[in-house]
Amino acid sequence: AQSVAQPEDQVNVAEGNPLTVKCTYSVSGNPYLFWYVQYPNRGLQFLLKYITGDNLVKGSYGFEAEFNKSQTSFHLKKPSALVSDSALYFCAVRDRGSTLGRLYFGRGTQLTVWP
Amino acid sequence: NAGVTQTPKFQVLKTGQSMTLQCAQDMNHEYMSWYRQDPGMGLRLIHYSVGAGITDQGEVPNGYNVSRSTTEDFPLRLLSAAPSQTSVYFCASSTGQGLGYTFGSGTRLTVV
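^ inputs. structure came back:
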């Protein structure tokens, strides 16, 4: 069975400090991994994805994520947080062996960046 | 603009009423899906479709029906609304490879 865990419901960080939002996953095969962001009263916006290749993936708005196969993790990072990064972040996984394209989401992590 | 369009944005229903949430995409995506978002639960898959005429159930299908008569449209029907269906509903579409998902802006449904 596929599953995604985001162990922190909330992450608080000061502006200018580095941020990390954690994600671990469980899939029966090799994963495709995604991060999405949701601003208040908005839909989900794509940030980045890991398909294959370099384990460090760079995405939108200065975010990056590192795929760690041995730890089955895909943590989202940013070197210097901005107040405007405050939002709800979702990690998602899809088994690349699946032809159905089903995404499985974590419960989300609320990121708050204070000035 | 290309993307996924959901209507309505807001809806209040009385228990027992039925309604249809509309979803349309203009990217010729094969795969479409419906999710519901509840606080602390993340997004849970209701139904999905891998192409016109093909649909299947997700994690939480009870109380919902779907059909896919065209590539563009994937409506979600609530047969007899219940307060437990109060949620925010998102439609998403993707190419068949599932490497890029586009989400609609959501429908906030309240059942009283």
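DSSP finds no helices and eleven strands in chain B. The interface with chain A takes residues 31, 33, 35, 40-45, 48, 50, 56, 58, 90, 92, 94, 96-106 of chain B (CB under 8 Å).
thumbs up if we can close this ticket
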